[in-house]
Design goal:
The protein has helices at 16-26, 40-49, 60-64, 80-89, 104-116, 131-142, 167-183, 289-303, 311-329; strands at residues 6-11, 30-36, 54-56, 70-73, 93-97, 121-124, 148-158, 189-195, 205-211, 217-223, 225-237, 241-245, 252-261, 272-281, 335-336. The protein is α/β, with parallel strands linked by helices and 347 residues long. It folds into 2 domains: 6-119, NAD(P)-binding Rossmann-like Domain (Rossmann fold, 3-Layer(aba) Sandwich), CATH 3.40.50.720; 128-287 and 319-339, Dihydrodipicolinate Reductase, domain 2, CATH 3.30.360.10.
Length: 347
């Protein structure tokens, strides 16, 4: 246990880095010791806004500073493995924006390195810290929805378009991490189809089917090519149904609705009864997910607990991503998630 603040270095000041800076500056448990970025103007801008932090374009400087306890990596994904490896080898705890690395094998290597060095490795699967997602998890665990039959999710918007990765790689980790959190396991198989409507070779639209076995399936729609932003997930249970809509004033709505099947006692007897009950808007806390996420990371460094979005979670998410992308390149062929590293199709 330690009473002093953790000193953190934030590497990458593009989109997520400044958000991390803002949150760390509000934490009682941590402070920003270094900021790092290759773009001089961006680095100068944030150095002016964070005068107590040392600024550099060379990550080796904060890594060589014995006062630095942890490194936040918020760079493009293809730099994640190299930077995280250097930080772990320097003895620093590491938080990496999602996805953990550009491939499952790279991510697994980072997890192994962190374990060998007895260091915390966490990934920015921010939605796991969202109060509505956590409330839905509590209801599933308590059996309030009954047996889960299927989950349907839409994560679409008009942009922001990316030319370096597909919509599955960019958007999929959000839904795949949420599903893993709720269901507590990876899907057994995945199939996906996609469309490169804007730029050849870059799928900007994808429909992903996930089979968890045990009579549970999920469908995820991902797109940068939609007229409006939608972040909506529907969970259908045998007892009740739950709608989660991120960004809505009422993010969780519980439907006491369903269909009941009764074995017929006589031939021709009507077998189904429909139940349509109350619709309840559930109250959830207004906690900012990225603040809760960084508190979880700092807490794991201080007291040794496993962060919610730990390395194992990050690797599992990438297994699903790779399986979905492998399926998409084969026109929707079913791919086993556990074999996604080598792209073996399910037979």
């Amino acid at each position: 246990m330690r009473s002093e603040k953790l000193t953190m270095a934030v590497v990458g000041l593009g989109y997520w880095g400044p958000n991390r800076l803002r949150v760390i500056n509000d934490l009682h448990e941590a402070e920003v010791g270094w900021i790092c970025d290759l773009e001089p103007a961006r680095l100068a801008h944030h150095a002016e806004r964070n005068p107590l932090a040392r600024a550099t374009a060379d990550i080796d400087e904060p890594l060589a500073d014995p006062a630095v306890d942890a490194v936040i990596i918020a760079t493009p994904v293809f730099a994640h493995e190299e930077l995280a490896t250097k930080a772990l080898e320097a003895g620093k705890h590491v938080f990496v924006e999602k996805p953990l690395a550009a491939s499952c094998s790279q991510a697994a290597g980072l997890v192994e390195l962190a374990e060998r060095r007895d260091l915390v490795l966490a990934c920015g699967h921010t939605f796991l810290h969202s109060p509505p997602v956590q409330a839905a998890k509590a209801m599933i665990d308590a059996g309030d929805l009954g047996a889960i039959h299927y989950v349907s999710s839409s994560r679409v918007n008009l942009g922001p378009y990316r030319s370096d990765v597909s919509a599955i790689f960019d958007l999929g980790p959000h839904d795949f991490s949420i599903l893993r959190y709720w269901i507590e396991r990876n899907p057994a198989t995945v199939s996906a189809i996609g469309l490169d409507a804007i730029s050849p070779g870059v799928a900007d639209v994808a429909f992903v089917h996930l089979d968890f076995r045990d009579d549970l399936i999920a469908h995820v729609e991902l797109s940068w090519l939609a007229p409006s932003k939608l972040r909506r997930t529907v969970i259908i249970g045998s007892e009740k149904m739950l709608v989660y809509e991120d960004g809505s004033p009422e993010p969780l709505r519980l439907y006491d609705s369903g269909i009941e099947y009764r074995d017929p006692e006589t031939f021709g007897e009507y077998q189904l009864s429909y139940r349509t009950g109350d619709i309840v808007s559930l109250r959830v806390e207004a906690t900012e997910p990225i603040a809760a996420e960084l508190r979880d990371f700092t807490g794991s460094v201080i007291d040794g607990h496993q962060p919610l979005a730990n390395g194992e979670v990050a690797v599992d998410v990438l297994r699903t991503v790779e399986a979905a992308e492998a399926s998409m390149t084969r026109d929707g062929e079913v791919v086993r998630v556990e074999a996604s590293q080598v792209g073996d199709p399910a037979r």
